[in-house]
Structures
1.
Amino acid sequence: MRYARTALALIGFVSAIFFPPYVAGFCIVILAACWSSWEAVLLGFFIDMLWLSPHGAFHGLPLFTLGAIILAWLFVPIRMQLLPK
Amino acid sequence: MANVSYYRSPQSNRRGPQRLFFATILVVVLVCANYITHGSVASAVRAVVAPLETGITRAGETIGGSGFFASKSGLEAQVRDLQAQVNDLQTRSAAFSVLQQQYDSLAQLEHLAQTNPGRAAPITSSVISSPYGTFSIGSGNTDGTQPGAIVLASGDFVVGKVVQAGSDSALVQQIFAPGIQTNVTIDGIAGIASGQGGDARVDLPHGATVAVGDPVIAPELKAHPIGLVARVDTNPANAQTIVYVSFPVSLSSLQFVYVTP
């Protein structure tokens, strides 16, 4: 599972540079859903630092960073409930 | 069969959220620092990524050119050549229709006579990867590229505007990026082009006579054209005529752009 997490994070970072944004977005969702993933938060931040325009839509709000933080913390209690103790 | 267990010790259960908490704090601090320093964190990230991206792209080209993927690279080269020819013809045709309209009015003749000081710059990033409709160019503060500079493609069409400039690279916001609004005129009728990512939409008064292929001029961008009318929705049920504007060439086929202050 640890390898899957690392691989998914690597795919996310590479796809943030070369592939359409939904690929990296998908990696963030999977990482956040399966683990308490700090990589998901960093990946969202990385996408925003790479591409965010201060004059863009929503007044330059870092949507991927915020989305990743919200998803990562949203899934923490759900995962705690669902995983066996 | 491997013994896979989803049991988590209390310690590892705590460690995950702890790391996530610290990552969240770090990211929030860096985002705030980026805002306060007007994008210096983002410029630093792009400065690290740009050579990496160029290196990987060149490595891919070297492997492709070595003959390892000979048949595939041959076909790709053919497709590229044909695509370049199509783009060239489309650009010439688009530029011709722009010139035709500009010759029709003295004011636009003046614009034609003006030259655009500036410099050519390579596109150094993918144009499909950005969720915000941005891309990077290899020209920065050291070359005199400043935020607000207009970025042109061949045929004098505006691709976008520079929004952040680092030392050797700059971030360009595409005109057709989602949420970007630009004042335009089509056949002398004023409107606002709202970017939709890939194309733009202009709402004109009902009954406006606009034809497919008409150039769309942005007076605020030194009267450069931003695209051509691709489709006109004249549904009588609508209160307005909806015009869809597209860029005459595929952005992903561009390798260089022209930056003018």
Note: The interface with chain A takes residues 6-8, 13, 16-17, 19-20, 22-24, 27-28, 30-31, 34, 38-39, 41-42, 45-46, 49, 52-53, 56, 125-126, 128-134, 163-164, 171, 173, 177-180 of chain B (CB under 8 Å).
2.
Amino acid sequence: MRYFLASDGRDFEIEVLSADGDHCRLRLADGRECEASFRAVDGSQHALLVDGRAYAVSIEPESGTDQDLRVAIAGESFRVSVEDERERAASALAGPAGARPEVVKAAMPGVLVAVPVAVGDRIEAGQPVAVLEAMKMQNEVVSEHGGVVAEVLAAAGDTVDAGQALVRLEPPAEG
Amino acid sequence: MDQPPFEKLLIANRGEIAVRIQRTCRELGIETVAVYSEADRDALHVRYANQAVCLGGPSPADSYLRGERILEAARATGAQAIHPGFGFLAENADFARAVEDAGLAFVGPPATAMEVMGDKLASRAAMIAAGVPVVPGTDAVADAAAAAEAAAGIGYPVMLKASAGGGGKGIRVVRDGDAMRSAFTTASGEAQAAFGDGRMYVEKFLECPRHVEIQVLGDAHGNLVHVGERECSIQRRHQKLIEETPSPVIDEETRERMGAAAVAAARAVDYRSAGTVEFLWSQGEFYFLEMNTRIQVEHAITEMCYGVDLIEQMIRVAAGGRLELPQPMRPRGHAIEVRLNAEDPDHGFRPSLGTIDSLRLPGGPGVRVDSGAYGGMEITPHYDSMIAKLVVHGGDREQARRRMVRALQELHVGGVRTSAGLALRVLRTEAFRSGDYDTGFLETWMESGESAAREFADDLAEVAALAAVLYRQQEPLRRPPQQASAGGLSPWVQAGRRAQHGRDA
């Protein structure tokens, strides 16, 4: 199986040549091969050996999917996106990023202070669609990809849970 | 063993500082009473105490800020003294007075000292009278012309500030007389709009200021000493991230001068207990900023370098004991603290709420962890985001710096984001290595996007990619990852609803 990854802003392509329990033989895009051993130890903590080099690695799925991981090694934290061959083929069919519908969610529980968007508004990537108060601080909730507001699902004054959908965006019409 | 100063002490706080105070109490043979909110039933400070009393709902107004309820708890448990920690009621003069009126010892300063130091104008006047250097400035000025005249006397550049100011509104840096008129008009208008008060005053603008503070200790017998400085310039929006002692810019002679000024400041308000006199240091001169009339978050670095337990000293002097510390106190080696906040530096430092599902704390030589965190702990929006403090001590500054880097590499907090990664990057910057930084450094450096060299030879981004592949490869061996709670309400929302709709609903 081949995997396509982005880690720390760099692209990686890694192929699993063989797997036997905790042991794997892997090949990187430049042809280098390595012998790895990988064991789950305690919750998100894992013990990794790569050609005898040892690493204490913690891995947590971000936003609940195994395609988006947060990997911590020696105090450094990397956001790693990973797709296997099948997932890559499926996402190629879905079209380029940005032309996908997006649901903007609350990243944390809190109270909505403002939802300054209305159905039909054009939203740019990174633009705030809501202001959420939590821990006595006001935090902007921003759209990742942008689009046109199709539905506003929450209003100022609402108490919202982490992960609750606030605004649904559709890809903008071409032209 | 000596007779303990008290038999039983109530700690009117939560989290790491409550645990910190309990540790000293245990060593002194003092029984502890914890108070807690309904959200903190499982907290470490409740589990580590000898007795625990529930104060009410999760919101601080329903629990840790209820002075009457805390006094009742002290009476019911027979506690003889109350330590307020920091935050909550620690600098509330009415509470300190109520504690003493109830016949209990308040482990902190006299209420009158809190009142004077809690008032900007009153404390400034008291400091001028005591001969403590303050930032040169004026009272309220009538108009732009009066401001320009005052500024010429002080020397440009100056800060034009709103008397009712706060939150950065109504503040301007003015570099010459020509700029004064328009600066005055806009800043005064801004202040009028924001605070309903357009009065302005002029203050000297300090170039590249550093935040250097002096720890003081006093007893009820008139003894007042200082325990050196702490350098706290690595901060963002006045929130400190990394502190160290000694300060890279303070030599022994300056330390003694600042220490004497801090002691004079404390003496001016008949100070007792532990307190911190904050100064701005700029180009070799220092100016009184304010006095914090409580134990400080960063007190542990002073303890590591000076070999003194500040909490123990506070408790002993609250019981009427005399300070018995060698004078002058000299620092031994170097200590650094990193504050571990549950927040996400990659997303505007927003609070990172959730459950700590995995926790690995550092250890080994010279490492101290003051923490209220535990595996399974829920980070709620009710309280401050600081969950732990990492403190290291080394023979010299570079050893301490490397030790902190090592400790941060060992640390892992799973389930929530923390400030640890940012601190690690700051410790690697040339500015931190050389000690040449000021209070503007952290924000400027973060905006620049400049990163510092890693101390790890291996290509960690590649290792992370390999680990991700192996994680995916073993997917069939794991249960599917937990979906973010879409249907079920979080305990935080449930608690909020309970509070709104009555406890038994």
Note: The CA atoms of residues 33 and 152 of chain A lie 50 Å apart.
3.
Amino acid sequence: MKKIYSIPFIVAIAAIMMFGQGQGDFFGIKTAFGYGGGGSKTIVLNAPNSWAVISPSTKLSAFNYTSADITSILAYNATTKAFEVPSASDLLDPINAFYIYPNKGTSVSLDYDTFSPGITSKNLSSGWNLVGTNSDGKAIDEFSTIQSSVSTLYVPGTLNGNKDTTGTSFGTNANRDLDKTSWPTTQLNPYDGYWIYATGATTYEKILN
Amino acid sequence: MKTKLLIIGVICAAIVLPVFTFAAPPQLPHIFYGNVTNNGNDVPVNTVIIAKVGGVEKGRITVSIAGKFGGSGALDEKLLVQGNISNGAVISFYIGDSVASQTASFSSGNIQQLNLTFTTSSSGGNTGGGGGNTTPTPISGDINNDNKVDILDFSVMMAQWGQTGSGLSADFNQDGVVNILDFSLLMANWNQ
């Protein structure tokens, strides 16, 4: 009988825990931004004739843009150590980041993929790699699987800042090197791209939850 | 004591400085696309354009549409000139040994439409893809203009085998297709 009286109390505690979390949190577990059964987000590229760095916030079904408004999109191939034109499918993975060059003020639309939990991974080569993440977690958490292989995190803040997003934006208008002592306090933006210097070949994995 | 501290400081600097020297991510390339002609004719497909700075290759692109290299679309291939290049360095463009009349000054991140013109003499130039679709060499077979018909020309022919259209450097008889008739013309001049 006493157990019945405790049910409302348990429900109330659960409700507080659920609704007390910020966007992207579920019982304290970081979840992918915008993920879960479709939807879309529009990102404004606010600096015409300038490069911006962008990364999908989660797995996409489509990366839409007005072709006449975008002159170039480049990815960095860490294996060949050279920039290259990515394939359309490369634009759909939150683990990737790329440079985009609008010739006018325009926007891109990210169409989220349907919910499908899993892992996405990217092979990193020794040297510089350009990556993204799928959550607004701290750097130490977002790069937890590759911490021992990364010596430098470089935030291309100026180019990350050439777009408007509603999420937390770290380092806007400031390029900076971040050593590991600042990783526990450095919050990343799932729409931003980051350069990381790998001391050896490794695999960067992210859980798509 | 001061001397020891100085030595320790120098050693520490020697260890730390290399870290800072590589602590800059790669710079963006200078990007090109445009039209390309040789002696006024569209350069044929499969011609390779090489960009050099100081005589060293810094990028290349293969012509996929006769008379054009790269495109203006977001995901169109472009000629990416990249590497450890100082802004302002002179970029030259080559097809084989032939150099374009135009040059450019390297500017990281710049996207530039640049029309390239090559001029080769009938006796010696090398455009890698022949003289274009209006100045054919019907029976020479010397596709790469190295003054001999050999396995290099044969390999280009194989790459174009069965292809149709204009601007095909291996289409010696200019009938719009690379086939056995062109092969027989190439064999007629083999090793010449």
Note: Chain B is about 20% helix and 25% strand.
